[in-house]
Amino acid sequence: MPIIITFAETREVKLRRASLEAVSEARRLASALGASVESVLVGSGVEGLAAELGRHGADKVHVFDDPALASYATEAYARALAQVIQKVKPTAVLVPFTAMGKDLAPRVAARVGAGLASDVSGLSVKAGRLEARRAMYSGKAVATVCWEGEPQMATLRPNVFPLAQPDASRSASVAKASVDVTARARVTAVHASGAGKVELSEAQVIVSGGRGLKGPENFHLVQSLAEAFGAAVGASRAVVDAGWVDHQLQVGQTGKTVSPTLYVACGISGAIQHLAGMSSSKCIVAINKDPDAPIFKIANYGILGDVFEVLPRLTDAAKVYFGAAR
Ligand SMILES: Cc1cc2nc3c(=O)[nH]c(=O)nc-3n(C[C@H](O)[C@H](O)[C@H](O)COP(=O)(O)OP(=O)(O)OC[C@H]3O[C@@H](n4cnc5c(N)ncnc54)[C@H](O)[C@@H]3O)c2cc1C
After folding, report:
1. The pTM is what?
2. 76 burial level (CB within 10 Å; 0-12, 13-18, 19+)
3. Looking at domain 200-325, does it have CATH number 3.40.50.1860?
């Protein structure tokens, strides 16, 4: 029976949502391919998370649980994933397109001699093989790609693939494994930047600000609306380059790729490099005073107006609405 492998990324001993999306998608593909799903879980104190992967679709979980694997280290993590791939010879390998996945997947692909389709936003089965859709030229075109040989390896854009409802009756078998943890580079400490209260790449709602805010002293208008929505804060590169906010908040080609349910762009023109990072958002609201701003071409809702007037009113309304709803 063919096997689909997923890499299960964790943070602070919790599975990241993108890991559950990957296993949900693997389960869906497995039904079409007559395959089984196996996940690879690496970290310290993570064995208990195997059950959650089982409820989301894994049949088996390979667990590398070692205090030396508490922090992500490229060499050891890549060794662990490659070890499982070499052992089970899967037909496909799915890895979340997160900061960790972007670092890990190419190294593993090179090690096992696999072709890698990165930042994939759709997968389908055709004649027993996978086909992937991925954005090209900053989102101006969508390419359909397929693989020669196996494993067919892909990194999946977070927040695009639907999360399966956990099935309490499902469980996964656990295969404990170990790996050589020696590495030439070692993480000695992790310091949270504190850039945003809600993690940008996993956020369901994002409020982003651009140069239309005129200066860093006005960026609190974006932060206040985000707070009222319980949203993450994002930014265009123009304001990051100007030093108004931390680079962690940058959305776009050279920043983060996001796919929230709601993306509110405030005073952002909609340059192609910005759209590359957020155009797969499910609903886009743009606030801009220029009716010809390119952002309006992809917005589901446009507010033609001045951010200094619109944002405080929207924030007040959101506070009243969510205050009543909470
Ligand atoms: C290689 C490369 C990579 C890049 N990567 C990225 C990236 O990752 N992310 C990114 O964002 N950009 C990126 N850029 C930069 C990109 O091309 C744009 O320069 C940038 O996105 C513009 O930011 P902005 O929309 O905030 O500013 P602007 O383009 O200056 O737009 C400001 C907007 O605010 C509006 N506005 C002004 N005043 C008000 C007001 N009072 N009320 C309402 N609206 C108002 C204006 O009408 C305008 O549309 C990249 C560029 C290059 C060359």
Report:
1. 0.84
2. buried
3. no
Residue among 299, 283, 315, 120 nearest 204 (CA): 283
| Beta-strand relationship, 60-65 and 36-43 | parallel
Per-residue pLDDT at 77: 97
3-176: CATH class: alpha beta
Which pLDDT does position 13 carry in this prediction? Answer: 93
- Give residue 271 CA to ligand 1 midpoint distance, Å: 6
Residue 79 near residue 107 (C-beta atoms within 8 A): no
Pocket lined around ligand 1, Cβ cut-off 6 Å:
210-212, 236-239, 250-255, 267-269, 271, 273-274, 277, 287-290, 293, 306-308
C-alpha–C-alpha distance, residues 132 and 61, integer Å: 25
Interval 77-136: pLDDT, tens? 999 999 999 999 999 999 999 989 999 999 999 999 999 999 999 999 999 999 999 988
Q: Is there a shared CATH topology between the 3-176 domain and the 200-325 domain?
A: yes
Q: How many CB atoms lie within 10 A of CB 217?
A: 9
Quote the CA–CA distance of 165 and 235 in Å, as a whole number.
Answer: 32
Report the C-alpha gap between 25 and 41 in whole angstroms.
17
* Predicted pLDDT at 325: 62
Position 202 scores a pLDDT of 82
- Domain boundaries defined on the chain: 3-176, 200-325
Ordered DSSP codes for 262-286: EEEEES----HHHHHHHTT-SEEEE
Query: Shortest CA distance to 77 belongs to which of 173, 8, 23?
Result: 8
Low-confidence ranges of the chain (pLDDT < 50): none
* Atom number of ligand 1 nearest to Cα 287: 43
Phi and psi for 132 in degrees, rounded to 5?
Answer: -120, 145
Specify whether the CB–CB gap between 128 and 34 falls below 8 A.
Answer: no
